[in-house]
């Protein structure tokens, strides 16, 4: 069973940047042949979709992060990332990665806290 592990979260000031990474443990999993997405869950709120990258490298973002976040994958490293710039306090939450289709069980996520 594949387990996705998120990392890179931290406490940053508003306006700062972070780069989140998603790695796969367990069975061999290729990010490049799956539509992948990042999600986040703010305290007391439902998990929400943040961004998607398709197998054809088309990218989609929720309106509130457009122009600030960049979703990407590294074929050589079999990596999957979310670059977050110009962070705002409302970006605070636990960030998760997962497949778009037939998602795996959710991992622990990585905590992002943006202070004002």
Task: Indicate the topology.
Blueprint: E1 3-7, E2 11-13, E3 18-25, E4 36-41, E5 47-53, E6 59-61, E7 69-74, E8 79-84, E9 93-99, E10 110-115
Parallel strand pairs: 2-10
Antiparallel strand pairs: 1-3, 3-8, 4-5, 4-9, 5-6, 7-8, 9-10
Q: Which tags fit this structure?
A:
single chain; 116 residues; mainly beta; 6-stranded mixed β-sheet; 4-stranded antiparallel β-sheet; globular
Give a brief rundown of this model.
By secondary structure, the protein is an all-beta fold. The chain has no helices and ten strands.
Verbal overview:
This protein has 116 residues and is mainly β. Helices cover 0% and strands 49% of the residues. It has strands at residues 3-7, 11-13, 18-25, 36-41, 47-53, 59-61, 69-74, 79-84, 93-99, 110-115. The strands form two sheets. It has a six-stranded mixed β-sheet, with no helix packed on it. Strands 1-3-8-7 form a four-stranded antiparallel β-sheet, with no helix packed on it. It is globular and about 40 Å long.
């Amino acid at each position: 069973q594949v387990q996705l592990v998120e990392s890179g979260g931290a406490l940053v000031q508003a306006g700062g940047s972070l780069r989140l990474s998603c790695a796969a443990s367990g069975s061999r999993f290729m990010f490049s042949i799956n539509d992948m997405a990042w999600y986040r869950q703010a305290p007391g709120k439902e998990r929400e979709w943040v961004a998607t990258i398709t197998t054809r490298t088309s990218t989609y973002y929720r309106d509130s992060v457009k122009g600030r976040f960049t979703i990407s994958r590294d074929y050589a490293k079999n990596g999957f990332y979310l670059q977050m710039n110009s962070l705002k306090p409302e970006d605070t939450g636990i960030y998760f990665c997962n497949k778009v289709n037939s998602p795996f069980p959710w991992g622990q996520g990585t905590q992002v806290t943006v202070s004002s």
